[in-house]
Structure to design on (741 residues):
């Protein structure tokens, strides 16, 4: 069954390691990642898993195929069932044949000493009191009564299945027209262009991180200004649980770090670079905070390395920055120096100054035009389940025929689908009808002895 | 307040243990009365013995209700002390899960006049309480990601009720497997047990859907993405799909019996995995 296949696929995606997207984007680190996986699962299984795309289940072609199949399946079965649901809700026959009353799961016979018309009136009255909707049909040989309740229940099944398709539709809209940048970095006192086809840029006034006395973090917040085509349009504070949104784009607090404000001047005293450099990367060996910038005029690439926090770092003492200068656009290391704050240093005939430290904020930028579809689908899903499970459609038929000596023979019948508490409901209704008619149930079957409750 | 909460916890632990003992006494009593009854053809002594057995059962229910009251009190005192919903770390979550299991079990016990269910559900709840004593219980301040009191409280309360319902479905399924051919006289008929499990799933399945949805709303706000295939989310989805499969099999194929019961046991395994999965799998949910 499709549902279990889906469950199995999702389970595989939970139990097996999944490659993070950032690693997948880079072939070298993916190779490294696979090497690690070989250590964990053994070479053979790793190759099998990789061939089956099991390390990235949720983006794999077969998982999408499975979802596509699910969609088709749900749509086809929903269309297929639509007529049945509609008929059950609106097109039910008032009069059922005699065979129905004999074979239906819940049935009873009553013989009140009343004429047919009075009997029918009293049954109608008794059922209306129980919040059932009652229809009557007077035929030459009999009076037929049909009563039902929660007749829209069946549409709950329709709603909850269609909502699954809608959720997939929302996700598709997102992947077609949405975008996301999980690592949008803005330094204090600087402005970063968002890119991604927008004219939006963001500047960070302050980043604040606060801690409880016991040590765990209490608050992370970025005070930002958003510009559209260079014009400030919105300012405010972004916190972990309160993102900021502008024009359908949302900015979420995601991470933060240190910056080094660097200034580079040439021998003539002209400024070539003067900006905060976010140390958002990590050096390969010791994992020190690492940032970089370029001086295109000279063909130089510069790495700025900060001290490992918390420890006394022999290579980069606290309060200093280590600067590596690479020539030929980053291919050849030509100079390395530790800079203390505020003290200019000659390197490659330029003057480098580490002016001060600051903070940067890492925002997650998301535009998801499909999100409202997802929320609507969620509401429909819950609504559908509640209708289906807690307001089951209940249907009762009664047929009143003249019996001997001015009595009436009344047959009652109910059908059961998934409604497990129907036997109690049937007893309640038929006892009520019997009470109204001044008689007792003579024969019948309210499910006892049937194959289940 | 913190001390009061701890006292209430101990009291509920004791009450729950006592309740389990009384349920067992009730069970053993019912079995031996059956045997005596069979031996001397239903004499007077049988009926007095039956009375005693019955009152053991009644006291068991009362003890369970007490346990529920104490457990609620413990959670309420914690709430007062910390000024936020009492479900933001594994300790509080374990208590809340025990609470969910006990309350749903009591509901079914009353609705079906069925004490046997507690024999399987109370050990699950007791296990959670016992487990909670092994992890730090002090009240810690919330890290920024959790600072959304309304969503935190609702998301997790709905989750514990769903888990509680699945625990009851599990209890019904295990009893069903013992009672498959209606051979055990002190248990309800197999069909009744099957129905209880089904009804428990009817409660748990929508609650689980709601847990997933509220989780998505929160992830949307806090992480910027309503669904990240985070291991805990994914495990919850698997759990939900398993119960979805169970409902289909039952409605479309009239699939009951041992297979359905087995599936409910697997489903409860998945539920427990969802609860603890982040311990093996890491991920963004790693604080709970
Ligand atoms: C493979 C695609 C699917 C098909 C063809 C399908 C078909 C059906 C059909 C025909 C019914 C009976 C409806 C009725 O009695 O009114 C049903 C019931 C149901 N389905 Fe699906 N379904 C599919 C996927 C799903 C999924 C993925 C879920 C969510 C986990 C789901 C949840 C339900 C629920 C909750 C019920 C009601 C069960 C009950 O009444 O106890 N379905 N489905």
């Amino acid at each position: 069954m499709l549902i279990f296949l889906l469950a199995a696929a999702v389970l595989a995606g939970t139990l097996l390691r999944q490659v993070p997207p950032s690693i997948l984007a880079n072939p070298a680190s993916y190779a490294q990642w696979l090497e690690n996986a070989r250590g964990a699962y053994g070479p053979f299984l790793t190759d099998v898993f990789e061939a089956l795309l099991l390390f990235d289940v949720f983006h794999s072609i077969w998982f999408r195929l499975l979802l596509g199949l699910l969609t088709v399946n749900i749509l086809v079965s929903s269309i297929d069932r639509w007529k049945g649901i509609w008929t059950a809700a609106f097109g039910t026959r008032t009069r059922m044949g005699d065979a129905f009353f004999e074979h239906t799961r819940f049935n009873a016979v009553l013989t009140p000493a009343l004429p047919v018309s009075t009997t029918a009136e009293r049954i109608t009255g008794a059922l209306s009191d129980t919040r059932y909707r009652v229809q009557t049909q007077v035929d030459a040989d009999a009076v037929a009564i049909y009563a039902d309740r929660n007749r829209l229940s069946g549409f709950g099944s329709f709603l909850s299945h269609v909502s699954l398709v809608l959720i997939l539709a929302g996700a598709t809209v997102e992947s077609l027209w949405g975008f996301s940048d999980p690592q949008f970095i803005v330094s204090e006192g600087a402005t970063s262009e968002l890119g991604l086809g927008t004219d939006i840029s963001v500047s960070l006034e302050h980043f604040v991180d606060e801690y409880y006395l016991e040590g765990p973090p209490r608050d992370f917040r970025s005070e930002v200004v958003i510009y559209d085509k260079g014009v400030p349009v919105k300012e405010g504070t972004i916190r972990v649980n309160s993102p900021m949104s502008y024009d359908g784009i949302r900015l979420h607090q995601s991470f933060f770090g240190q910056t080094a404000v660097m200034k580079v001047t040439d021998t003539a005293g002209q400024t070539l670079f003067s900006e905060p450099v976010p140390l958002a990367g990590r050096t390969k060996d010791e994992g020190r905070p690492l940032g970089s910038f370029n001086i295109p005029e000279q063909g130089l690439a510069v790495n700025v390395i900060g001290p490992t926090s918390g420890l006394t770092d022999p290579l980069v003492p606290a309060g200093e920055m280590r600067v590596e200068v690479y020539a030929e656009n980053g291919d050849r290391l030509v100079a390395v120096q530790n800079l203390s704050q505020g003290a200019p240093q000659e390197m490659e005939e330029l003057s480098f100054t580490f002016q001060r430290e600051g903070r940067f904020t890492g925002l997650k930028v998301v535009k998801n035009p499909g999100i409202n579809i997802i929320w609507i689908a969620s509401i429909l899903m819950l609504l559908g389940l509640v209708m289906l499970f807690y307001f089951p459609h209940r249907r009762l038929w009664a047929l009143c025929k003249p019996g001997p000596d001015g009595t009436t023979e009344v047959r009652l019948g109910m059908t059961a689908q998934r409604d497990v508490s129907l036997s109690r409901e049937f007893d309640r209704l038929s006892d009520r009808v019997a009470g109204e008619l001044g008689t007792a149930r003579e024969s019948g079957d309210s499910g006892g002895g049937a194959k289940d409750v | 307040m913190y001390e009061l909460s701890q006292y209430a916890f101990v009291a509920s632990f004791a009450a729950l243990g006592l309740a389990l003992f009384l349920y067992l006494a009730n069970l053993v009593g019912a079995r031996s009365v059956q045997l005596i009854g069979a031996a001397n053809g239903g004499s007077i002594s049988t009926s007095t013995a039956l009375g005693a057995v019955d009152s053991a059962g009644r006291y068991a229910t009362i003890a369970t209700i007490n346990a529920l009251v104490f457990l609620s009190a413990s959670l309420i005192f914690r709430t007062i002390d910390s000024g936020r919903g009492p479900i933001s770390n594994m300790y509080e979550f374990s208590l809340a899960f025990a609470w969910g299991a006990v309350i749903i079990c009591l509901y079914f016990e009353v609705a079906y006049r069925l004490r046997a269910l507690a024999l399987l559900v109370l050990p699950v709840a007791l296990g959670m309480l016992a487990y909670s004593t092994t992890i730090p219980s002090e009240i810690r301040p919330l890290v920024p990601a959790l600072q959304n009191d309304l969503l935190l409280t609702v998301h997790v309360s709905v989750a514990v009720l769903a888990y509680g319902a699945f625990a009851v479905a599990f209890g019904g399924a295990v009893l069903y497997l013992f009672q498959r051919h209606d051979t055990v006289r002190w248990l309800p008929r197999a069909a009744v047990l099957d129905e209880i499990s089904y009804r428990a799933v009817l409660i748990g399945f929508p609650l689980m859907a709601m847990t997933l949805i509220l989780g998505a709303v929160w992830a949307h706000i806090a992480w910027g993405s309503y669904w990240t295939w985070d291991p805990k989310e994914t495990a919850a989805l698997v759990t939900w799909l398993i119960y979805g499969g169970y409902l289909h099999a039952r409605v479309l194929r009239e699939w009951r019996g041992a297979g359905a019961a087995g599936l409910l046991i697997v489903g409860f395994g998945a539920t427990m995995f969802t609860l603890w999965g982040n311990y093996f799998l890491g991920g963004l949910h790693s604080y709970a």
The helical segments of chain B are 2-40, 44-82, 90-112, 116-132, 149-178, 190-222, 231-253, 257-281. Confidence is low (pLDDT under 50) at residues 37-47 of chain B.
